């Protein structure tokens, strides 16, 4: 396909007898653009035949329910009216597809493309912005995220500069120190052995624990993740204190609570970066996730119930006995700080500026973007269904839908993606790639907490497809 894009063509001033001069931009003019295939492992792992991709949705937690605008509980087809609204501007739920997909099982009356959860290429150690098949990826620590871009470059020999408005998803996280640490002495030569004995040490997390219920603002889309993280920290510490039969009065800064691998479930999470549930000692305390996240499955799926993930993050181990942290000496002392973190996914429209001196090389692209997008009309479906029962479509929609009674709309530079049935499980929703961010958060939490069988990346090719 040839797309026409508006580009400024760059040329190099080459005065006779002198060295290469500065780039000068000529006027903006429309140019033919062509699709440039990517050759990265990620592209190799992309299921071809994208035209056969089928969007679909199922509603209901256990018993199927009829989806908004749907025909009957068994029909997974998305009504044309909904597709029309969320495709009125192609920046939303239908701008994305699962990279690897297969058709659903017709015997289950599910006619949609399902995802395969595999890693094709890891970007975890990258630090810059680059383009890969279908995406712009920014791995900078300040403003990470992905933009949805089907890569087309203008057909020019001298290079060009142009801008495009791109749908951007950004993970946002805030953390609060729980003022508790896990401390242990390395008592095994086996590098991958789990830590058998350790202390939970009070650095104020117990003795100075507030008695005031932390607040959560309920101000529409204006959510404050620090409030969520703080609420998670306070409740998490309280549950840990109760489990340890301690009180604020009996504890003190420096108090140690001995634990071992048989008294808790997570000792193999120590010694590395890990993610634990808020109730990591009291497994019965799963309701504190609801308190921190701000909604439960029985709340209404709406624009103010934003998807939030809460959990406890274990920082990398710090060696505390003064020895070299690169050496795993027997008897060495280590400490891991714990933070309560809350995360959400933030959508925006970003104006991305591309510069290239080639019309066929994605690697030579220079990518910059404005971090604050323009105000646009964001919408999500208005239903009275419960969060556990439905995943809502969302996206930038045409201004004509501003007062549409079937939508919640908000005009803003960005939009927090709403919670839905997928938020209850942390999985990749079948047929509904617009909820894949929830699966991504789930994978981060899962893969960090499991000691074996990580699904995010492995070396067998079972999940790391690029190896095969
Ligand atoms: C991207 O563009 C190419 C060329 O126009 C097209 O073949 C391909 O289907 C597009 N990809 C998606 C995911 O739409
Ligand atoms: C939905 O499918 C199930 C299983 O195939 C069937 O028992 C049920 O009658 C169907 N419901 C409707 C409303 O078609
Ligand atoms: C599945 O959905 C697609 C797209 O809506 C349609 O073309 C196809 O006929 C459907 N298949 C079945 C078995 O219903
Ligand atoms: C790119 O431009 C050149 C020269 O203008 C032309 O010969 C070529 O066909 C163009 N390629 C495409 C894919 O449009
Ligand atoms: C941990 O201590 C810091 C500094 O005193 C404080 O700001 C923070 O709220 C404490 N965390 C908790 C969970 O109380
Ligand atoms: C540590 O790794 C070795 C070699 O891969 C393996 O045999 C052993 O079972 C592992 N131990 C633990 C506790 O995972
Ligand atoms: C835990 O703390 C106690 C008391 O401070 C100390 O004797 C013990 O060695 C510590 N255990 C570990 C595994 O750090
Ligand atoms: C106790 O908590 C208060 C309020 O969170 C904080 O200002 C203070 O620094 C804390 N003290 C200690 C010893 O952590
Ligand atoms: C806390 O007290 C209960 C009841 O006395 C006891 O069963 C439990 O083992 C104690 N827990 C710890 C961590 O000491
Ligand atoms: C592990 O902790 C439990 C509960 O605190 C305790 O009863 C048990 O004796 C400990 N086991 C070892 C080997 O220290
Ligand atoms: C969304 O649902 C919650 C209940 O879970 C309610 O408190 C809130 O007011 C609703 N938001 C809107 C915009 O109606
Ligand atoms: C929606 O309603 C507001 C307030 O009544 C009005 O200002 C705006 O023009 C309406 N938008 C459309 C597209 O009708």
Poorly predicted runs: 448-454
Number of strands: 21
Tell me the series of helices and strands, N- to C-terminal.
EEHHEEEEEEEEEHEEHEEEEEEEEHH
Radius of gyration: 25 Å
| Helix proportion | 10-25%
Span between N and C termini?
31 Å
Strand content: 25-35%
Alpha plus pi helix count: 6
Tell me the structural class.
mainly beta
Question: Could you describe the largest sheet, including whether it forms a barrel?
Answer: 15 strands, antiparallel
Form type: globular
Mean pLDDT: 86
**What small molecules are bound in this structure?**
2-acetamido-2-deoxy-beta-D-glucopyranose
Protein model, in words:
Helices cover 12% and strands 30% of the residues. The chain is mainly β and 468 residues long. It has a domain at 172-342 and 444-463. The strands form three sheets. The protein has a 15-stranded antiparallel beta sheet that branches. Strand 7 (135-138) and strand 8 form a beta hairpin. The longest helix has 19 residues, at 225-243. It is globular, with a radius of gyration of 25 Å. One 2-acetamido-2-deoxy-beta-D-glucopyranose is lined by residues 204, 208, 253.
């Amino acid at each position: 396909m040839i797309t026409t894009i508006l580009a400024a063509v760059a040329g190099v001033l080459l005065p006779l007898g002198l060295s290469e001069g500065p780039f000068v931009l000529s006027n903006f003019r429309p140019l033919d653009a062509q699709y440039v295939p990517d050759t990265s492992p990620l592209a190799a792992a992309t299921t071809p035949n994208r035209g056969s991709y089928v969007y679909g949705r199922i509603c209901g937690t256990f018993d199927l329910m009829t989806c908004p605008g749907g025909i009957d509980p068994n029909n997974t087809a998305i009504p044309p009216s909904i597709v029309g609204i969320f495709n009125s501007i192609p920046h939303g739920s239908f701008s994305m597809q699962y990279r690897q997909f297969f058709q659903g099982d017709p015997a289950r009356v599910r006619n949609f493309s399902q995802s395969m959860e595999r890693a094709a290429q890891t970007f975890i150690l990258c630090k810059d912005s680059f383009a890969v098949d279908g995406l712009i990826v920014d791995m900078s620590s300040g403003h990470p995220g992905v933009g949805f871009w089907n890569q087309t470059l203008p057909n020019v020999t001298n290079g060009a500069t142009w801008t495009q408005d791109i749908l951007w998803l950004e993970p946002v996280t805030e953390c609060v120190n729980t003022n508790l640490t896990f401390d242990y002495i390395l008592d095994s030569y086996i590098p991958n052995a789990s830590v058998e004995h350790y202390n939970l040490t009070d650095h104020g997390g117990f003795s100075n624990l507030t008695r005031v219920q932390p607040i959560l603002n309920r101000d529409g889309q204006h959510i404050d993740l620090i409030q969520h993280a703080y609420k998670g920290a306070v409740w998490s510490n309280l549950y840990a204190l109760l489990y340890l039969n301690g009180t604020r009065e009996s504890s003190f800064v420096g108090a140690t609570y001995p634990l071992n691998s048989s008294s808790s479930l997570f000792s193999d999470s120590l010694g590395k970066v890990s993610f634990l549930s808020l109730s990591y000692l009291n497994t019965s305390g799963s309701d504190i996730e609801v308190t921190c996240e701000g909604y439960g499955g029985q709340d209404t799926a709406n624009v103010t119930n934003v998807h939030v993930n809460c959990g406890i993050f274990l920082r990398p181990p710090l060696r505390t006995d003064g020895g070299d942290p690169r050496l795993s000496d027997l008897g060495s002392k280590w400490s891991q700080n714990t933070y309560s973190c809350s995360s959400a996914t933030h959508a925006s429209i970003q104006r991305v500026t591309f510069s290239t001196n080639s019309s066929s090389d994605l690697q030579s692209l220079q990518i910059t973007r404005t971090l604050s997008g323009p105000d646009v009309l964001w919408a999500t479906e208005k239903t009275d269904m419960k969060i556990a029962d439905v995943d809502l479509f969302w996206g930038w929609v045409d201004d004509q839908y501003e007062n549409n009674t079937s939508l919640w709309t908000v005009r803003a530079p960005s939009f927090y993606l709403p919670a839905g049935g997928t938020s209850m499980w942390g999985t990749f929703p079948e047929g509904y790639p617009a909820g894949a961010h929830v699966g991504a958060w789930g994978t981060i939490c899962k893969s960090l907490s499991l000691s074996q069988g990580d699904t995010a990346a492995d070396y067998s090719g079972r999940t790391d497809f690029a190896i095969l």
